[in-house]
Each structure stands twice: as structure tokens, then as C-alpha cells.
């Protein structure tokens, strides 16, 4: 069992989960989700996440963080994805880690990050935009919002005009952004898959057909077992990537995580909707809040085909004799 799995039952992480559950229940009802998708900034939700220390959770105390280790911060991020909270918490964490790695101060408030100014997550709502070049990092000065779009999940993706920014040299910055983003999207997708499984299990036990819950039928039990397997695989590989990347991104485990979790996202969302039948495709049911995020996040920061190719190149470059040590870490 990994260190992250062993610590999952710790008092700290249990407190984190309870805190996020409470915040979600109090500040993210269905009406707030719909308002966020319509373009309204969920100020009360973000303020409460900031009040409990989650906005800067991925930063060390020396940089203004609350003192959580990276594994605990990712447990918190996973739980916010479980609840499909419509806020740029992952983007703020990615931007903060990029600034910190470059030796720059991390400003207060919501942050987002971009390498080209296109489809910038939450670009019109965040207080600061971190701009990534091939070999530099900086904060944009008065970026101009040119076009507001949305991804499939209803999250804003903005085109920005960035005339200038103060930059600091950071070799390999663009590659670092890709790895950081792939890691945190993997964590988020693992949380969304957990919620899709919970919805499917609940519906299968409540929906009665031919005089008994559909969860009693062997075919449905088989689908639920497959969905549970996909969720477990996603959780395990995401945990491994988090554990290996606490100080800096680990390319091999992140590539494996984004590829495997992306695959699980596609298959898991499909199974969850099969279990729910037509009900799961309605706006009234909450399932779509997590499945639309799964479909969106799997394509961001490289889809599974991109990372599978990178894995293949890494293995080929090291040669056949290095494959087993790569897989086992020995």
C-alpha cells in the first residue's frame, strides 16, 4: 500500500473531506451550479474555500500555504471534483506551483495559467493570469478578454490578448505546465469517477423494475463491477503520480496516470449512463455534472493518445532491459 493510501484514513484527510462536503452542501446547491454555468462567479463558494485554506493548499507554509503536504492537498482537490464544484481550484494550484518553481511570489486570489492565451480556464474571472513561455514564467499585465467560450462541462474557457507581462527565466516552463496540468486533471477525474460510481450504485438500489431493484439483476451488477474497477484503477494510478510528484512532476507516472485515468473517464462515464438509462441524460439528474467534466478534462493537458505515445517513447529510449525497473521503481 502506498504512503498516500495509508494516510487516506488519517485524521487530517478525514477532516479535509468533511470540510469540503460541508462547503459543497452549504454553498453549491443546484441553483449555484446552474448560475455558474450561466457565467456568474460563485463568490460565496470561492470565499468559503479560501476561508478554510484550500485555495493555497498546494503551496508550502513558506509561500503562504496552510501547511498541508502535497498528498493532502490532492485529496482535497479530488473531493472538490467529486462534488463538481464550479471553481478554478486546480488552475489556481497549477499556477501557484509554476510561480513557486520559477522563484516568483504567488499573489492572493484566484489564478489561472496559459501558454498561448487560447481557451484559458476561467480567464475572465481570475484575479491573475500566469503566462508560460518555452523558457520563462510571468504574470500578465491587464490581459484583454477577446472571446468567452465554454467547455462541455460549462466551465469558461477564454481567449485573452496578452500584450506584455513581466517574465522570469525558467527553462522547460512549457513542459512543466503540461506535466502539472496533466497531474491535477488526473486527480480531478479520479474524484469525478468516484462520484459517478456513487450515483450509479444509489440509482441501482433505488430504481425498481419487475418488482425488485435493478441492482439485483446480474447484468447491472456486472456493469457496476466494471465501473468500480475503472474508478479503482484511476484512483490507484493518480495516487502513484501524486506520490512521485510531491516535489516536482514525475514524467513517467504522470504520463501513465493521464493515459489510464483518461481511459477510465471514457469507459466509466459510459457505464454510469447505461446504468441510469434515459434518466442520466436529463438536466434534472446530477450525474451530468461529473460526466461532462470527465469528457472535458480527459482532453485537456494531453489526451490519453498523447500520453500513451510519450510512454512508448520513454520505454523505447531506455531499452527493453530498463522496462521492468521503470515499472517497479527498482
Briefly summarize what is shown:
The chain has 330 residues and is an alpha+beta fold. The protein has helices spanning 3-7, 11-27, 30-37, 43-51, 70-82, 89-101, 173-206, 218-244, 251-276, 287-297, 304-318, 323-328; strands at residues 111-114, 120-121, 128-132, 136-140, 144-150, 156-161, 165-169, 208-209, 212-213. Strands 1-3-4-7 form a four-stranded mixed beta sheet. The protein has a three-stranded antiparallel beta sheet with strand order 2-6-5, with no helix packed on it.
How does this model look, in words?
This protein has 330 residues and is an alpha+beta fold. The protein has two domains: 3-171, Orthogonal Bundle (Butyryl-Coa Dehydrogenase, subunit A, domain 1), CATH 1.10.540.10; 174-328, Butyryl-CoA Dehydrogenase, subunit A, domain 3 (Up-down Bundle), CATH 1.20.140. The protein is 56% helix and 12% strand. It has twelve helices and nine strands. The protein has helices at residues 3-7, 11-27, 30-37, 43-51, 70-82, 89-101, 173-206, 218-244, 251-276, 287-297, 304-318, 323-328; strands spanning 111-114, 120-121, 128-132, 136-140, 144-150, 156-161, 165-169, 208-209, 212-213. The strands form three sheets. A four-stranded mixed β-sheet has the order 1-3-4-7. A three-stranded antiparallel β-sheet has the order 2-6-5, with no helix packed on it. A hairpin with a 2-residue loop joins β8 and β9. The radius of gyration is 20 Å and the shape is globular. It starts with a helix and ends with a helix. 45% of the residues are buried. Residues 1-5 have low confidence and may be disordered.
Amino acid at each position: 500500500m502506498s504512503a498516500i493510501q495509508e494516510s487516506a484514513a488519517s485524521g487530517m484527510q478525514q477532516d479535509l473531506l468533511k470540510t469540503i462536503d460541508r462547503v459543497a452542501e452549504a454553498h453549491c446547491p443546484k441553483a449555484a451550479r446552474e448560475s455558474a454555468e450561466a457565467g456568474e462567479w460563485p463568490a460565496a463558494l470561492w470565499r468559503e474555500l479560501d476561508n478554510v485554506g484550500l485555495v493555497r493548499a498546494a503551496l508550502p507554509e513558506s509561500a503562504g500555504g496552510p501547511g498541508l503536504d502535497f498528498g493532502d492537498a490532492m485529496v482535497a482537490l479530488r473531493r472538490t471534483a467529486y462534488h463538481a464544484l464550479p471553481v478554478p481550484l486546480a488552475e489556481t494550484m497549477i499556477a501557484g506551483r509554476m510561480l513557486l518553481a520559477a522563484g516568483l511570489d504567488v499573489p492572493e486570489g484566484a489564478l489561472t495559467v496559459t501558454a498561448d492565451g487560447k481557451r484559458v480556464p476561467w480567464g475572465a474571472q481570475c484575479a491573475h493570469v500566469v503566462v508560460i513561455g518555452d523558457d520563462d514564467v510571468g504574470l500578465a499585465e491587464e490581459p484583454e478578454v477577446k472571446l468567452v467560450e465554454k467547455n462541455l462541462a460549462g466551465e469558461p474557457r477564454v481567449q485573452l490578448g496578452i500584450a506584455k507581462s513581466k517574465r522570469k527565466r525558467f527553462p522547460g516552463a512549457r513542459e512543466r505546465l503540461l506535466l502539472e496540468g496533466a497531474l491535477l486533471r488526473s486527480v480531478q477525474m479520479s474524484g469525478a469517477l468516484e462520484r459517478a460510481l456513487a450515483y450509479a450504485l444509489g440509482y441501482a438500489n433505488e430504481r425498481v423494475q419487475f418488482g425488485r431493484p435493478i441492482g439485483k439483476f446480474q447484468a447491472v451488477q456486472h456493469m457496476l463491477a466494471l465501473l468500480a474497477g475503472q474508478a479503482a484503477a484511476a484512483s490507484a494510478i493518480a495516487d502513484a503520480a501524486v506520490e512521485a510528484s510531491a516535489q516536482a512532476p514525475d514524467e513517467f507516472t504522470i504520463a501513465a496516470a493521464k493515459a489510464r485515468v483518461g481511459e477510465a473517464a471514457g469507459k466509466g462515464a459510459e457505464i454510469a449512463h447505461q446504468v441510469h438509462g434515459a434518466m442520466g441524460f436529463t438536466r434534472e439528474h446530477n450525474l451530468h455534472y461529473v460526466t461532462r467534466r470527465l469528457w472535458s478534462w480527459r482532453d485537456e493537458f494531453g489526451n490519453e493518445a498523447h500520453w500513451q505515445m510519450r510512454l512508448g517513447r520513454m520505454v523505447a529510449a531506455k531499452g527493453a532491459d530498463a522496462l521492468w525497473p521503470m515499472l517497479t521503481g527498482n
